[in-house]
Amino acid sequence: MKSLERLSILTAVLLGLLFQSFRTQGQSIDKNKYIGMPVGGIATGQVYLGGDGQLWYWDIFNVSSVDPGKNGGDRFYMNPMTQDNKFENGFGITARIGDEIYTRRLNRQGFSNIEFNGEYPVGKVRFEDRSLPFAVDLVSYSPFIPTDAENSGLPLVVMEYTVRNTGDKKMSVDMYGWLQNMSCQFSAAKDKGQPRNTAVQGDGFVRVFCDNTQRQELPDWGDMSLTLLGKGQASASAHEDRGVGIYKGGKSETATTKPGIKLVGGVSGKTVLEKGDSETFTFVLSWNFPNVHLWDRAHNWKGRKNLRHYYSSKFKNSSESADYLMRNDWLMADTKAWNRTWYDSSLPRWFLDRTFINVSTLATTASVRFDDLTDSPENEGRFYAYEGVYLGPGTCTHVFHYEQALGRVFPDLAKKLRTQIDLGLSFRDSGVIEYRGEFSKMGHHDGRGMAIDGQAGTVMRLYREHLMSTDNSFLVQNWKKIRQSIQIMIDQDKEKTGQADGILEGKQYNTLDRTWYGKVAWTSGMYAAALRAGEAMANDVGDRTFAKQCSSIAEKAYRNIDEELFNGEYYYQKLDPEHLDAPNTNKGCHIDQLLGQYWASQLGLGYILPEENVRKALSSIVKYNFVDNYEAYLDTATIKVRRYYAIDDESGLIMCAFPRGGADLAPGKINNDWERLVVGYFSEMWTGQEHQVAAALIDEGMVAEGLKVERALHERYSPEKRNPYNEVEYGNHYTRAMSGYAPFVSASGYFYHGPEARMSFSPKMNKEDFRSAFIAAEAWGSFAQKKLNGIQTATLELAYGQMNLKELGLDVLLEGKPKKVTLLVNGKKTKVKHSVKQGKIKLSFAKKILKKGDDIRVEIQA
């Protein structure tokens, strides 16, 4: 009986872990202090929603909010940032019941019980207090619509407050919002302009518009607006009720002050609530600070002197962006529709949180879009990314290629990055894709200008972008350069013997920041996967000769990497005896040894290495690289760290373990302090690598192991420890961590070939009752499958956009060969052909143009 009780308790605990999300509530209000969910538009700056509903970390002014430090973000891991309030902004409420008046700020100062529920891109906060006869629910976001980067890049935040009368008497309610004029405040001493606020009474809105009479050449020159939709009052200036810290608007229509002096304006609205009634107040806080070329953390961007933020080419001021939102209220509705679609899933709640969180990196100052002020459409909206906030210039290929978030969620923006940067200013006639864009031309690190892992990864991103297209035009237009970028790797393969054998040798500069030599399993695996991607692209454009060449070398790689570099447990590196001074993993078990297989699986390219050995190697990574207690590991580690991305008893995957020895040779020759720091990488934990391993494990059906890796990472970023929305490596919001979307792709077993109108699913969890979101080239929706009473059903529901489909692939869940297959499109029976092979069923039908609201239903009987 006791054992049964223990089992029940354990089951309850595991279920609790399974569905736990980022929710903080009750009196443990301190758990909110680290939370900072990016809630602005993508590539428009950075603003956090705090765990108590307060907006903070305003980094929209082209004047950096934090010093990133010389060695990067580990200091932010060990000492996470807490909520700051560098200028005055906030929201408050006053409720009146007869002679009783209740006034509160809508943050931790005003309410004793605050519950935060983060569902990026939508943050939800509930404010309650037993002493108050009302409660308030906040929904905060910027329009975020997968496949629509343009409308997901608005420089604004929506704050929707719903007030509920929880008492038993009628009450009147006043809702306030206030905003300090920050135009030129950081540069105030440099000029003589004046902060100026203007109250605006519009048609269906009220607003305070904050600008400056200052010269336009200052970095923080620009304007902000606070708008309340519906009826209300606006005031250019406001006075503070010092008892509760709420700025209440007066009746002023315009107000100015001296440079550097605080000027606050506000808006407010009123309502009357009967018992049980509720009312929603929608505020929009928008901004326009165009001078990105004066950004104090800028690198040597191409055409820097002419650069402005891309959003400033669409809106001349902050009022225009708010007006645009009001005219297009479907943007708010579709954002909420995506939020519902993503979380309407059979996948664990925490898993849905973690695998989408790093998409928010696009809404931080790690990501920028430029308006190049030219007439060339090629430069319109040029995307740029640091490795992490302010650190690591040039949209670095060897870091950024891990990501799946941008390419899957905003495929059109990813295509712009490929054409403008990788095949544009980064491209050499030789086929080299310079790994740091324009920064590479300054002679950074390696004479080749190519990071081998970044080169191969970019080839695979090009294939992904082709898959996430509606037709072949992207591939056809860029095929010549894509072919060159693959050929230069083939040429390197031939350098030593004159023949390509599928294993790279010679110089191999890579993401570990030094040049490696020898036969390296992970870089050659990346090369092998790129060859398979090259074969697929060549076939799609009809280049049969190149397809055959890629296929032939990939087959050699399949045999040779396995024969030469597999030791029975995992894939390793053979050293080059002429370059023993170079760093290496030697006999070590390296976390990225199957990085190429990760990419091949994400793209539906099959196995680049024998399936059995892939599974053995993945098991070895979990066996040898997973650390249960990081502090205990460091006590015995041969290779010491200089940076910490785990502390104390935290768990996760270290980069390289040495169960068969070889750690003594791994550092190579250490010439300086930088190289000493770089060798320490081997004992660090990088979330971008952990995500890819978790995805690879799930792809192979090793779900428990994959969830173990993801869960350990997730718990390192639990809100009581640090900001769940900021996975740190060399810099905050590190872009490598956008590989976090990959485990979701793996969990649903999703494959999509837009130009061929093909889609398939092969769920790895809850196969017999599965549901999850999917994103296509220009559409998104939900997929579900179920097995019940001997019948297998599958449904595809389109919630947004338009999609062509003529082939759908599914797993066969029934015993025996399917005998009857029925296809219904919007409830109408449709002719369908099917074929079954190795437990998969392929359904073929006349091309369907599916639009929002359409659905497909499949019924299979054995």
Automatic annotation (TrEMBL):
The family database entries (PANTHER family) matched by this protein are listed as: BILE ACID BETA-GLUCOSIDASE-RELATED, PB1 DOMAIN-CONTAINING PROTEIN
Name recorded for this polypeptide: Uncharacterized protein
Q: Where is the Glycosyl-hydrolase family 116 N-terminal domain?
A: 36-328
Gene3D superfamilies named among the record's database cross-references: 1.50.10.10
One GO term under biological process is:
carbohydrate metabolic process
Q: Which UniProt keywords apply?
A: Plasmid
Can you name one GO molecular function term for this protein? beta-glucosidase activity
Where is each Glycosyl-hydrolase family 116 catalytic region domain found? Answer: 453-741
